[in-house]
Amino acid sequence: MRLRVDHETRYTYDAPVAYGLQQVRMRPKDSRGQKVLDWTITVEGGASELCYDDHNGNRVDLIGIEPGRTETSIRCVGLVENTEGDGVLGKHQGFLPLWHFKRSSPLTQAGEGVRKLVAGLGDCDIAQVSTGHALSAAILDTVGYEGGNTHSGTTAEEAITGGTGVCQDHAHIFCSAARLMGLPARYVSGYLMMNDRVEQDASHAWAEAYFDGLGWVGFDVSNGYSPDERYIRVATGIDFREAAPINGMRMGGSDEGVLVTLKVEQ
Q1: What whole-number distance in Å separates Cα of residue 93 and Cα of residue 101?
Q2: Which CATH number fits domain 2-83+246-265: 1.10.10.60, 2.40.50.140, 2.60.40.2250, 1.10.10.10?
Q3: Do residues 22 and 65 make contact, with C-beta atoms less than 8 angstroms apart?
Q4: Residue 137 near residue 158, CB atoms below 8 Å
Q5: Within a 10 A sphere around the Cβ of 126, how many other Cβ atoms?
Q6: Is pTM, for the whole model, over 0.70?
Q7: Quick count: other Cβ atoms within 10 Å of Cβ 170?
Q8: Tens of pLDDT along 159-191?
Q9: Residue of 174, 183, 178, 214 lying closest to 99 (CA atoms)
């Protein structure tokens, strides 16, 4: 399956920006079953300063905002071919050891809610991939998918307490619970081609856990299954902050407006 992505993020500022830098993680890389055929990032109101691979192996573009701008945009257009649909990424690669993905972070710190969720699974064998699917189902039963009640800084525990969340929250809860059980786990950002629409409001997120003998396996809690040919895997991290499509800093232009347009189609 070949998937085409057209993703633009446009920022408007209420005053000219004196200085700004954006870290952009919007370039997918070749991996098992995923081949990038074409991918271009264009910038209005800024310029690419450099491109590098971060400690998670993500390709990062460092974008400088032109001084005096009141509007900037970052757009990526690309074509990816997918040939695998089992959600298995395979063996561990990269700069970081597996034990790194057992550690917690402020967004994935396990508290009473996560501990109760894990206890409800009983005596699961963490060597079996079925444990990941059972955890995924338990999370969706506990935290229903509903937008508007959480934000980028919502923690796994806060989402459980609120009872609803979006894909980012589900991925954080999965990572928190999997690590509590002794499984390496990481957050994944990327794209999903939906069967009922081309235009979308935002990119997608899911989680991966590592199983001995099988390697990294993806779990899309929000949809209740593992990633298939409709998914494009872009960036990973210990949580959202390390895999966010765009983050950065600026001086000037205190109020910011953001408009996202996204199309994912076969």
Answers
A1: 13
A2: 2.60.40.2250
A3: yes
A4: no
A5: 16
A6: yes
A7: 27
A8: 999 999 999 999 999 999 999 999 999 999 999
A9: 183
